[in-house]
Amino acid sequence: MPAQSEAQQKAAGAALSAKRGETKVADLQGASKDMYETMTEAELEEIAATSHDHLPDRKED
């Protein structure tokens, strides 16, 4: 499942960093904290690896 926006891609990257122990979980907030708690490392890798090209800044509802 690729990221649908740059914001989602960046949040997944932050959550992935915490999963790997590279950053503190306490530093996470908002969507990245939710992603950390509910997604596996493999799922986060897939979203974080999405290219920024042609992604909107934020997903439109």
From TrEMBL:
UniProt region (Disordered), positions on chain: 1-23, 37-61
Pfam families on file: DUF3008 (PF11450)
InterPro entries in the cross-refs: DUF3008
Compositional bias segments (type: Basic and acidic residues): 51-61
Chain intervals with Low complexity compositional bias: 1-18
Name the UniProt record assigns to this protein: Protein of unknwon function
Coiled coil: none
